[in-house]
Amino acid sequence: MAILGLFRGLLSWVLSICGCGSDKKKKQHYVIRANDSEWNLKEGFPNNHIKTSKYNFLTFIPLNLFEQMQRAANLYFVFQIIIMSIPYITALSPSSTAVPLTFVLLATMIKDGFDDYGRHKSDHSLNNQTALVLNDKGVFVEKKWQDIQTGDIIKVRNDESISADVLALCTSEDSGLLFIETAELDGETNLKVRQPLQETFTTIKTEHDLAQFKGEIVCELPNNRLEKFQGNLLWDGQKLAVDNNNIVLRGCVLRNTPWIYGFVVYAGHDSKLMMNSGKGVFKRSKLDIMTNYLVIWIAGLLAVLCTFLSIMSYVWENSTGRKFQVYKPWPDIMKDSPAIIALMNWPGFVMVLNTLIPISLYISVEVIRLGQSFLIDWDLNLYYEENDTPAKARNTTLTEELGQIQYIFSDKTGTLTQNVMMFKECSINGTRFGQSQAEKDGEITMNDLESVTEPPFVDFSSNQYADPNFKFYDQALRDACVEGEESSIEFFRLLALCHTVMVEAKVATDEVDYVPGYNGDNNGLLEYQAQSPDEGALVTAARNFGIVFKSRTPTSITISINGEDEVYELLSVLDFDNVRKRMSVIVRKDSKIMLYCKGADTIIYELLSNQSQPIMEPTQQHLDTFACEGLRTLCLASKELSQGEFEDWAEEFNEARTSTEDRDEKVFEVYCSIEKDLNLLGATAIEDKLQDGVPDAIANLAEANIKIFVLTGDKQETAINIGYSSMLLTENMHDVFVVEGDNLQTVHANINKYTDRMNEIQTLEGNAPKIYFSGVNDHESVPMEDVDENMKDGFALVISGKSLAFALLPEAEQDFLRLALACKAVICCRVTPLQKALVVELVKKNVKATTLAIGDGANDVSMIKAAHIGVGISGKEGRQAVLAADYSFAQFRFLERLLLVHGRWSYWRMSKFLNYFFYKNFAFTLVQFWYNLFTGFSAMTLYDDYFLSVYNVCFTSLPVLAMGIFDQDVNDQKSLSSPKLYIPGQSNLLFNKKTFALKLFHGVVTSLLLFFIPYGIFKETITSEGLAADLKTDFAVAIGAILVIIVNLQMALDTSHWLWINHFFIWGSIVFYFIFTFTLYSEGLFNFAVTWFPNVSAATNTFGSGAFWAAFFITCVVCLFPVVGYRWAMQKMYPTLGDKIRKGIWKERRSKNLSLLFQRKSRVSLRARPGSHRSAFAFSQESGIGGLLFSGIQKIKGKSKGSFDVAGASSREDEA
């Protein structure tokens, strides 16, 4: 790492000398001029070319080699090659190490190059898309995205992607609005509204106007804040404020708007999409890091052994070697000095024992990881058929890390949810609708859960405007609406009037067979466009029950009630905001003025009149039930206004909104003054539809001791409701802590208060079952079979992005982290992409745990790159998260299988592989250490050179590869049904310093037995002719044979899951050894090259002697029987969970379909605990939209009567 830091420092110094990268740091803001390319080029703004690849043609080889040399073993092998290149030190050829090292480096280089080639292809595809750009002649011409410059003016057409961050100058719509889909940015598919500045919208009408546009933007420097933009447009002597409502970001798609003109503000890597992509991080697994450290330790052990042998070499040469100079004189270079001989022998001993760190280890690791990655790619259980999306391992170096995850950081929208809202139930005038008949008749118990059948849906076919995708269970409500029952009609009238939904009527075509709301009489296709999916669900529900929202203008709304049109004059829109938590409209029809209001139950109940008293209690009971079911609720209320009352209020409102001081506060007070004494109509219950299997997946992951943080940009109420519906939060929790504050002191005080409260509860319940607490070193959790359903279980923490900004400051971050780790669930809402990454970094920095981040949008990229493992949800919501991720698939539920099956298997396999690999190499190499004790410490090798070269490649590599790719202790179904099997990997119990030391000891003992048992038998051996045997050759062949057989038999003992390939590789390796040996020492090779193959008949002599077979059987028994006995005793006395599951003595006691309680798949009614009340209010409407629709640009243009109904509105498309 020090070398890496030095390299980066040198690179920074070179760049500073060259003047690269310094301009942007000097800038305080951007000054961008439209239609002035010379100015913009002089300012050094980047073009729109993007580059996410790591290498280019010139940097690929040096940069990749530099990265690979950060691995300690590679440096060790380079050092080894240097030593081998000195002939006085060793007779070994440097090619014996250089060739395999080159192969390893080349293989890794090819893999990295292939991965980077994919990024190059993606970059090329994006950079070569085309857009319409205004040229010097005032004509729009097609240009590639990469050629667009900051300051250019572009035209974007409907359904086209935005190529850069642009200031909207003009739109085709007379409403002055444009609609965009931001799925690529935040994973949300509901449309967002943007608008150009009124001055540019009303002035710019033609391409000539655009060519004459000489505006200048002064704005903040590029940043990754998707929700904020600050700048001013200087134009025509005016200084106009520009904010996020006027900016359309790269990656958005223009929807339902024929065209817009945009002024490019940020291009290429300055765009907010690319700023959120984060920097690529070179990720390494824990086992990889551990192996790197162990390699350093082994190198240290090797140095110690070689030093010992060198010292003994000096002693032996000084006392004994001098006497043999008559037979073998010392070379002149030794200068008659035993010390020089010992010094020169030290690197020779390094070469003799160099196989302690074999190159084949790293080749095998890469092959195993590649094989495990292919198994993930090919797993049909991770394939999502609906959109033909398989799982993809985009990073092949982290498979075993998937088996060690302790913290998951998840986005919400598009990751946990489908971003689809469904109107499920409602309460009208104290009566609950939406239940099946079985639920109405009585409570269904858990024993009846699986026997409950899906009730029939309501038939809406008689309604020509009905949405065929809308499902409802209660026919009684449909009958009430058809019969004109007043309370039901008024309930849905409110839903059809009080909203900000836009409607578009499309003409039927031959390509369209059926669109929701098709009206055959007028050839109209009603299509709703809602910025809030909640509002879309509510208006769609009203439409299906016969109260249809048909069109709107800035001053009117038209609805149809059971086929009869009603036109309401829109007098005012009291826009939604997060403080009031409600929205109201004031409408007039036939001189009757009505205020309709919808909002949070806790707020609406405080505003109700005494007339609502009879239905308040039953409605509250229904709200509690809805909340317990994880549904999002809204209360509906109304009141009639007199003409005088409205006129007085309108005057106050006009004064408040034109006030120059405290305008927002005054408007708020005026809103509240009329929103009182309301009459309760009822409540709605909307399901924020989770992806299939999310609650089950979260429950299983939680039982595997994995804690989930939900980091979302959604509102607090929305996030909390999803927490309940996904089982992240439960009703039997002790408390849900909500941290709120506008300053550091308040936030810090809240954190400390909740920490004290938690400690008090834990102290009071000291004798109760242990509360779930997961700290830095605490991985215990209450077994689910021991948890009583009435026992309160754990805590949860909810914090908003505003408060999180203070909680992440150095003064509070440790206390915040301590509280978060002590909670069972953590939800961070309204967080920015940067805050998501900071939360991940906080846990990574302070907790020795492996983290995983999962998301689907560009706002999740920083988080994905910050975590140890990044997972992208691939689908219709864009590809930015997938491109940045290490793994990708289509549904959150697949994460359960990825971790609990593939992750656990990969960690288990890799741990077994490493333990075995080090064992077999210690046994193989240390035999040479014992051998040198008997050869005058002369750095001689016992084994034949050919055996040394192929031992790791041909005799022992394939069995261990098969185990590392295919072995398993339990099958996938048992891995999923017993999540506790995952826990050992989190604590790294299967491969660590302790297990390494045990394998070192095992290898040392095996090497001792391998050497001394055959040595004792062969020492006095004579041939059949009565002559002394060639001890060196025969002894080497004998030990080699026994070694190969023992390590392969040990592999057989270590294999848990036998396939034909295991049999083929294990027994085949032994057979191949004998074939190889008989061939190597055959007369044919001897006659072919006597100098290369001098030891003719060594195999025949060795394997034909009784001494070999005696040594073989004794050594095998002594080496293997203790292992068998130890494992048998451990399984009997201390069986692991895996042992119990394999033997069938472990029973999983969890409910198989626990999540059905919350998903309501079988429509089971759940009642809240006695006395419980939790508001389930959630509404994703952004503030300001209502006012925009009601009074926006139309009044400024003097076109207050212009229609908002797209079909009837005049368009400016022809002007362009």
UniProtKB/TrEMBL annotation:
Q: Which domain of life is it from?
A: Eukaryota
Q: Which SUPFAM superfamilies match?
A: Calcium ATPase, transduction domain A, Calcium ATPase, transmembrane domain M, HAD-like, Metal cation-transporting ATPase, ATP-binding domain N
* Domain (P-type ATPase N-terminal) ranges: 32-97
GO cellular component, as recorded: plasma membrane; trans-Golgi network
Binding locations of Mg(2+): 411, 413, 856, 860
Q: Which residues bind ATP?
A: 411-413, 535, 576, 598, 632, 712-714, 830, 836, 859-860
Protein name, per record: Phospholipid-transporting ATPase
* TM ranges: 293-316, 339-363, 913-934, 946-966, 996-1015, 1035-1053, 1065-1086, 1106-1126
- Enzyme Commission number: 7.6.2.1
Q: What keywords is this UniProt entry annotated with? A: ATP-binding, Magnesium, Membrane, Metal-binding, Nucleotide-binding, Phosphoprotein, Signal, Translocase, Transmembrane, Transmembrane helix
For activity, the cofactor(s) needed are:
Mg(2+)
**CDD domains this protein is in?**
P-type_ATPase_APLT_Dnf-like
Active site, renumbered: 411 (4-aspartylphosphate intermediate)
Membrane topology (UniProt): Multi-pass membrane protein
Answer whether the UniProt record assigns the keyword Protein transport to this protein. no
Stretch forming the signal peptide: 1-16
Where is the protein found, in the record's own terms? Membrane
PANTHER family in the cross-refs: PHOSPHOLIPID-TRANSPORTING ATPASE (PTHR24092:SF190), PROBABLE PHOSPHOLIPID-TRANSPORTING ATPASE (PTHR24092)
Q: Where is the P-type ATPase C-terminal domain?
A: 882-1136
The catalysed reaction is: ATP + H2O + phospholipidSide 1 = ADP + phosphate + phospholipidSide 2
Is Translocase among the key words of this record?
yes
Q: Which organism is it from?
A: Clytia hemisphaerica
The family assignment reads: Belongs to the cation transport ATPase (P-type) (TC 3.A.3) family. Type IV subfamily.
Q: Output the Gene Ontology terms for molecular function.
A: ATP binding; ATP hydrolysis activity; ATPase-coupled intramembrane lipid transporter activity; magnesium ion binding
